[in-house]
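Agenda item 2: flavin mononucleotide complex prediction
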Amino acid sequence: MPISGDVYRQIGRAAAGAVSIVAVHADERTAVIGLTVSSFVTLSFDPPLVMFAIQHDTAAYAPIVTSKTFGVSLLSADQVDIARLFSSRERERARTTVFSMGPWLQVPLVPGSLAQVECRTSEILMGGDHAIVIGLVEGANTRDGQPLLYFARQYGAFTPLAGA
Ligand SMILES: Cc1cc2nc3c(=O)[nH]c(=O)nc-3n(C[C@H](O)[C@H](O)[C@H](O)COP(=O)(O)O)c2cc1C
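Presented output:
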């Protein structure tokens, strides 16, 4: 490894990110699998593409990368409990109670989130121990509010700088 694991983890801690839940249907739509991610970003305007990265060894990996569609919910600052739930092993138990179904692709979405994005999986690229999942956006909803952010292993909200 060209740098130590500690240095790499420090880079991760220095990179602030918005927190989202990626969710898919599994087991012939009898189950929903959700995962907390901070790697979601918009990728392309035309066509409208978004992407996120998922670790190979997470239990959610196989259902998420094999799903033809997925939902992304950008969490608001008051949804930290949902972020904690879907990054923990407890997520299996609560998964059916949290989600509503999107109007365009019927993908699982978190009610009350800042943005709800409905995607058709368009490409999966491999990047080290993660897969990069690219989705074509076929429907979306947004609302005003404060985003949930993650920085230096802590959750927080956005504070604009005075005069900036
Ligand atoms: C704020 C935050 C952001 C995360 N972002 C990602 C991510 O972008 N991709 C990913 O694969 N896992 C991410 N994780 C980790 C997963 O949510 C989950 O904790 C991890 O995959 C462990 O899964 P397991 O219980 O199946 O081992 C993130 C966790 C947190 C708390």
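Discussion summary: The domain at 18-149 is CATH 2.30.110.10 (Pnp Oxidase; Chain A).
Owner for follow-up: CH.
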